[in-house]
Amino acid sequence: MSTSSHPIDRLRRRLGHAVFLKVAGPDGDAARVRVHDTPGPRWFPPGSPIRQVHADVTTFVGGLRALLLQSLHPLAMAGVAGHSGYRGDPWGRLARTSTYLAFTTFGAEQDAQRMVDIVRNAHEKVRGTAPDGREYFAGDPHLLTWVHIAEADSFLSAHQRYGERRLTPEEADEYVAQSGEVARRLGAVDVPRTTAELAQAFDRYRPELAATPAALDTAQFLLKEPPLPLAVRAPYSLLAAGSVALLPQWAREELGLDTWSARTFGPVAGGLATHGIRWMMGSADRRASTIDEPTHHSRDLDETSSR
């Protein structure tokens, strides 16, 4: 019996594809074809650190950590709470984020730039006043830089802890520099280019960070009230525990998450979660360069990314 026809392998593929569609949205297959099959140069070559990190399933842990960390900036959190619909449509927001990450990391240059332009235009509409009376604007370069460093640090931390192959110090610096290229195209300023500069950037933002009621509500939603069937809440709790364990201690303290169990069992839980997802979805190399499921149609990029 061939490997592809083995019942366990078929189950693995079905589960992996179900997870993929949950993260990428109903148009995920079409977007994946567009990302990998569109001819032309890319922003980042095959084998580069940003491709290694963003192709690995550790982005599941890193992405959740990034959301928790980003919520600690009151103005960034006010924009999310007021405009993103993260409670009403969390999976739609996740799909838009994963689509953006896929196109800017692996897509053809014209599609990657088009995706950046779409997001920049969307940011123009995200303006308002935070509960503390300060005005916010999603396109503010200072806020864009905070969102970027929280994301870059989270993806890199998750990869270095749970990844298939850790980056060398030089590769880690290159990852920070490459992810920073995308952030600058989006409008961020003073973007770190090395891991040392990334740590310094956190030091600069630290005085601005605090757990507002909206941030605490987000943590409660993400960690305790995820919009998931009961059958998959237990595996998700492992992923969530791994994400919390990777947060800096000061961030866990701000969010009321710095418990003995989080510090002790969180890393083990994160490892179990990533191993399980990797079993379902396959190796990072395969996901970065192939399309597992065929699709018979493709929609316009604007339609796919604007949902």
UniProtKB/TrEMBL annotation:
Pfam families: MPAB_Lcp_cat. Residues 52-264 form the ER-bound oxygenase mpaB/mpaB'/Rubber oxygenase catalytic domain. Keywords: Oxidoreductase. It comes from the Bacteria. InterPro entries: MPAB/Lcp_cat_dom. Residues 288-307 are annotated as: Disordered. GO terms for molecular function: oxidoreductase activity. Its EC number is 1.-.-.-. This is Oxygenase MpaB family protein. It comes from Demequina zhanjiangensis.
